[in-house]
Amino acid sequence: MLTKSEAEVMHVLWSVDTPLTSTEIVNLSVGASWKKTYVNLLVNSLLEKKMIEIAGVKQTGRNYSRTFRPIVQKEEYFVDCITDNKDFSEEHIPLMFCALIKHTKNKEIFKKLREIIDKADEEANE
Known about the structure:
54% of the residues lie in helices and 13% in strands. By secondary structure, the protein is an alpha+beta fold. Strand 1 (52-60) and strand 2 (63-70) form a beta hairpin.
């Protein structure tokens, strides 16, 4: 489970399609008044938790900075938050699924869901 600040850093990384330096994370953190040193602590914690990885190095002025990208995608993290709960069991999945699909009327999403369920059903029967 992530702290609120770690989750905010992840949200910044999930919102872009490119690896970011800690300075870029600070600059893109809307509403946060973090200092770069605090973001460095958060980044190190996220590295330890295997939520992000070092993507490379980028020249920033005269210095070089590490860039980071998420390893765990947003949807995977949300599912982990639910399934890591001690009260969770597989019997909850149908009700949770129903609660989620109430949030859309998009027929393409329903089509994708049917395909995913059919494929999972086939794999379970192999």
